[in-house]
Structures
1.
Amino acid sequence: MAFLLIAAAALSQAAASAPIAQVKTVTGQVVIERSAQRLPVKIGDPLFEKDVVVTGPDGAIGITFIDNTVFSTGPNSQLALDEFQFDSNNFRGSMLADMRQGTLAVVSGDITRSAPGAMKIKTPTAVLGVRGTTFAVQVYGDH
Amino acid sequence: MGAITIDDGKTVTTLDQSYAAAESRAGSSQPVEESRGNISVIFRRAIAAQPILPHHFRLYFILGSDELTPESMTLYRSVFDDIKGRPIYQIEVIGHTDTLGDLRRNQGLSIARAAAVRDRLVRDGVDRDAISIAGRGKLDPIVPTGDNVAEPRNRCVVVTVR
C-alpha cells in the first residue's frame, strides 16, 4: 500500500513538471506568471500547467501545445493555463484555459479528438466548449 | 467542420458556421452579426502573433527495412524544408509497420524506422534534442488490416513538425 502511494506521488510530480507548450513568437512586453513570480519570456521557452500569460499594451505571444493546439494573444491580455493533460498515444486528455482579458486566437489540436468537452475556455461570463475548429475570443470591459 | 458552444450558465449558444459570432454579457449570451472586417481588426495582433501551424508528413519504407522509398526520399526534403522554415521547432517521429510477421520484430522495426528518420534529420543539421521518436509496431496501423497482411501504406513513419 505504501508503495502505491509513493508511485502516485511520483506520477503527479512528473505530470506537474512536464512542459505542455512551447513559446513560438513574442513581440513587445510579455511575462509569464509562475508560482508568484513574473518571468521574462523568449522564443523556445517551455510553458507549464498553471502558468499565466500576460501581455502589455504592445505585447503579443504565440504558443503551440504538445497536442498541436495553437494559441495566440494580442495586447493587454491575461490567459491562465489552468489545466492541461494529454497522452499522445491515444489522444486522450483535457484542457481548461481561463481567458481573463484581451484577445485570443485558437487553432484547435488533437485534444479535441479525445471526447466532447475535452477542451474548454473559460471567460468571465461564459464557458466555451471547443470541437475541432479555428476561432477567436475577446474579453473586454468590467466584469 | 468544428463548432463552439457558449455556456453562460443559463443558455447554450452554438456557433458552427464560418465567421459566426456571439456576445456574452453577465447573464445573457446571443449570436450577433460581426463583419469579417471588424473581426480582422479586433484580432489583428493576436492573429499576427500566430505561430506557423503544425504539419504532418507520412514517409514510406521498403518492405522489412528502415530504408525510405524513392518517393519518400523526395518528400523527406519537404519535411526538412518545413523544419528549417521555423524559428523554433519540435518534431515527433512515430514509426509503424504492416502486419506481416510477429509483434516483437515489428515493434523493433517501427522504432528503427523512426530512428532512421531522426538520424537523417540530425545529420542534416536538425537539433537532436528537439526530436522525439516512438514505435507503434504492428498494433496501430495507418490502414487497418487483418493480421499477416502486406500493406505498403503501413510501412511508414508519421512526422509531426510544430
2.
Amino acid sequence: MIIEIWTKERYAKNEEAAFLARLARAGLKADAARLSRLYRVEADFSEAEYSRIKSGLLTDKITELSSLAPRKTALKKAYRVEVWLKDSVTDVVGESVKEAVAHVVGRLPEAVRFGRAYYVSCASGLKLKEAVSKTLVNEVVNKFKIGKTKTGR
Amino acid sequence: MTDLLSNFTSLSKKQLAELDGTCGWSLSALELAEVQRQFRGMGRQPSRGELETIAQTWSEHCKHKTFSGPVAFRAGGRVKKYKNLFKETIVRATRKLNKKWCLSVFTDNAGIVQFGKSGKWGLAFKAETHNHPCAVEPYGGAETGVGGVIRDILGVGLGAKPVLNTDSFCFGYPDSKKKLPGNSHPPERIMRGVVEGVRDYGNRMGIPTAAGGIYFDDGYLLNPLVYVGCAGLIPVEKIAKKVMPGDLIVSIGGRTGRDGIHGATFSSANIEEDTSASAVQIGHAINEKKTLDVLMRARDLGLYNAVTDCGAGGFSSAIGELGSQTGARVRLENAQLKDSLIEPWEIWVSESQERMILSVPKARLAGLEAILKAESCDYCVLGTFPGNGRLLVTHGAAKVVDLPMAFLHGGVPNFEKPARRRKVKISAKKPARPAKSYGRILKAMLAHPNVCSRHSVINQYDHEVQGGTVIKPMQGKYGDGPGDAAVIWPQAATLDLSDFSGFAVSHGFNPAAGKLDPYQMALHSVDEAVRNLLCVGAEISRTAILDNFCAASPRDPEVMGDLVLAAEGCHDAAMAYGAPFISGKDSFYNQAKDAGGNEYPIPISLLISATAPVEDIRKAITMNFKEAGSSVYLAGVIRGGMGGSVYNDMAACGNNFISPLDMKAAVRLYTGVLKAIKSGCVPAAHDVSQGGLAVTLAEMAFSGGFGAEIDLCDAKREDGLTPLELLFGESPARLVLEVVPGKEHEFLKLVRGLPVSKIGCVRDSLVLEVRDAGARLFREDLSQLKKSWKRELI
C-alpha cells in the first residue's frame, strides 16, 4: 500500500516555487508543480489499519492532506514523477517509520520505503525526463518512473 | 574467479591483475606479488576473506602508502630523497616544536590538545575527506563523511563528546556553461546533495555545524572534495586506552549490511564510469546518536578498556587495529546483520555505518549491556582479544581469515615514487589596466562564487544546538556577515558555567595558489588559518593545526612534486608560527576519466584547519564595523602579485606572480595585533584574503551597517603598485582593524614598530569610498555592494 501525503495548497507555495526553480536550472520550464511524500508500507494490514497509519501517524491535519490512492491534481497536461530509493539502498526514513507503525498498529510491517511524487505541468515528457535525471534522481541509488496524471481534486 | 582464487599462488602477473580488477582491491602489481610470496611461504592458498583483509589493510586509505612512503624529488639538477615524506615534514615539525599542551598527536583517531584553565580537559580535533563517495552519491557520501569523522572523535582515547562539526567543500562552478563529462553529476546537484547530507546528519546528531567554506574550480567537476571535521571534549584521564588480553570484542551501534563494501579500496582508485554504488555507505544519524549516548555513559563508568570506530575496512580494520598487539579471535556468526544474503567475508569488510568496537573486560559486560538496552542500541559480542598475536576469523565452522598480525600490518611493500617540480610560467609584469571601473569590478568580485555569501548553505545547518556557539558563521548587525572563525564555549561537555574558556576554529585553503606554487600555497593556507583565529581574538601562540591533502594520481611525478613542495611548506609554516600539526589525512587518486577517456585531475588541494584557545569567550570579537567615528587600520604590507587571485579568475591580467610570505614578520605583526585586541582597542578585525582589500572593506562595512572613508596613501606597501593590486591583490599577512576612537593612542603604543597604518574612518553614511592619495578609486552604495554579494548559491 502506498500512502501519499501532501501539503495543503495554501501552505505549499514556497516548496513549489523552489522546485520549479530547480527544474528551470536543469533546463525545463514548467508551468506549475505539486509535491507529495510517499510511504510504501508492505504489510498484511486491513484498510482501516492503513487509514490509521495515514491519518494518525503520517499526516499533520492542519497543514497536510493524505490519501491511500494516487493524488488527483487540478494541473493540466501534467506528469507524475515518482522517485524511490532502490530496494538495495538503506532507507533511513523508511526504517524509522517502520518502527513507528509498529507502535500504532501493534505489528511490525515487513518494510516501509519512503519516496516522493512530483506533479509537473509541462509541454514535453522527454524534456521532463532529462531534467529529472539531471536534478531529482541519482540513478546509482534512485529509481523513478514518469506517467501521465489524472486530473481532479 | 573461484579458479583464480584457488590457484592464487601460481597465478601469472596478468592473472593477478585480472583478479584484482574483478574483486576491486586496487592493489599494485608489487603488492599482489608480495601477497603471493607470503602465501607460497605458508604453503597454502589464501581465502577470499584473507585477500579482502589484506586489500583493506594495505589500501591507500588505511595505510597512506604514498605520503608515508619513500620519494625521490627532482627540482632542477638536484634530487632530494625522503624515506617517509610524512614523517620528515609534518611529523618532524610537531616533534621539533614539542609543545607541552599537545596531549596526543598522530597516534589515535584524532589529535588532542589541552583545553581550559582547570587542566581536566582535552580538545580532540580531526578532519576527514569523503571525496570518492560524494562523487558517486553526494547525499549519502556527505552524510557518512560527517558520521565517520564524528566517530573518530567518539573513538579517540576512550571517547570524546563532539561539540562542533566543520565542513569545507570544493565543487565545479555551478553555473558552468561547459559541457559536462559523460559520467558526472552537474556541480549544482553535487553541491545540493552534499549540503543536504551534512545538514541532515549534523542536525540530527545534535552537533553544531559552525565553521567551513566552499570553493569552486572546474578542476573539481568530476571529483568534488568534501572535507568534514569534528571537535570534541575529553577528560584528560580518559585519553589513554589499552586492549587487555582476554577482553571481549563488542560491536555497538548499527547493524552490518552489504553497503560500503570496498569503500577503502575504492578510495585508492581513480573513479571510472562503472564505479559501483555498493561502495557508498548509507548513514543513519539516529543510530549514531544512540551510540554516542551509550559511549559517554559507559566511558564515565569505566566499562571498557579501549574503543575505535569502524571506518574504512569495517570490522577488518577496526578489530585489526585494536588487536594489533594482542591478536583477535572473531566469530562472524555473532554479528548483527541487516542483510540475510551477506557472505562471511562481506561481513568482515563491510563499511556499514554507525558501528564502534569496544574492548570490554568480561566482568563489565553486564553493566555495558544494561546501558545498551536502556538506549535501544544494537550490539553483539564478536569474540575476544586472545593475546597470541594472531588474527583468526571464523563463521561457524568455516575459517575466513587466519593470519599473523605482523604480516598484515608490517608486510605491505613500498617503493620509491618519483616526484618532480611542475613547470609553470610565472609573470611578474604590471597587471593590465582593467576596462571596467573599480566599483564595477568590486561588485562583480563580490558576486563571484568564491566570494559571495554562503547564507543559503549555512542557514541549513543548526549552528546553535548545544548552546555554545559564541561567534557564529554569520555575523554582524544583520546576522549575515561572513565570519573568519567560529568560537565555541563547550559548556555542554564541561558542564561548568563559571569557566568561560572556549576555543576558535578556522580554515586556510588556496588551491589557486597551489596551481602556481604549492610551497607558497601551504604557507598562505597556514597563514590564513592563523589570521582567521586572530580575527576573533584567539590565543594564536597556542594554535594547533590539521593538514588534509587531496591530490590526483600519485603515479604522476608532477602530482608527487606538488605534494612534496606543499608538505615542505607545511613544515616550514608550522615551525615559523609555532603551530604543531596534531592530526590530518590525505586523499589521493582524485582523478577521473570521462566517457571519452579524458583525464580530469584535481589541482593540489590542502585544507588547513586550525584551532586555538579563547581565554574568555565574552571578549571574542567579530568582523563587522561597530561604530561611526572609529578609525580603520591596515595591519600588514600590500605586496604585488595577482597570482591565484579571484580577479585573475575573472579576467586574467597578465600577472600570475604569487607574493611570497614573510612568516617571521607575520608572526611579529600578529603578536602585536593580538595584544591590541586583548586590550579592548579593536572591536572588529577581518582578514584580507579572497577578493583582496576592497572586498574585506566592503564586507566589514555592509555587515556592520556603516560606511567608510578610506585613503590608502599611508598604507604600507611595496613601491609601484597599481590600483588593481592595491584593491584586489591577495598578498598574505594582512588584516583590517577597527580601532575604538578613545583608545587609538593605546593601540598605537601596542603596535609600535609594526607595519600598521591608519587608512580611514568608519562613517554613518551607507557609502564605501576608497581613494589613493586623494584620487578616488571608487565610491559605492553599501546596499548595491551587499546586493551583489548576497546571491543564492543553492
